[in-house]
Write the structure tokens for this entry.
Amino acid sequence: MKDQLIRKTRENSFETIRWILGLQADEKKIVKDFVLDKGMKSFLLHHRDLQLIESVQEKIEVLKRVMQKYDGDIKTINFEEVED
């Protein structure tokens, strides 16, 4: 049950970030695999470790700045994922 909830939350998070970033083909797969495995918070904190094109990396940085302006440090934001 808990695993299903985590998976559904991460799928929804991925669909949102895919739409915001306008991800295509390779980037879409890379981001989806990472978000489903590690979650949205980890993605936002570690996206620079992924092989994404620079324009996608820049969009992620802009998104992070907006989130931090209104919600504070990414590390402290509750993404409504169940902690392991």
Notes: The chain has one domain: 2-76. The two ends are 13 Å apart (CA to CA). The chain is about 70% helix and 0% strand. Residues 2-76 form one domain.
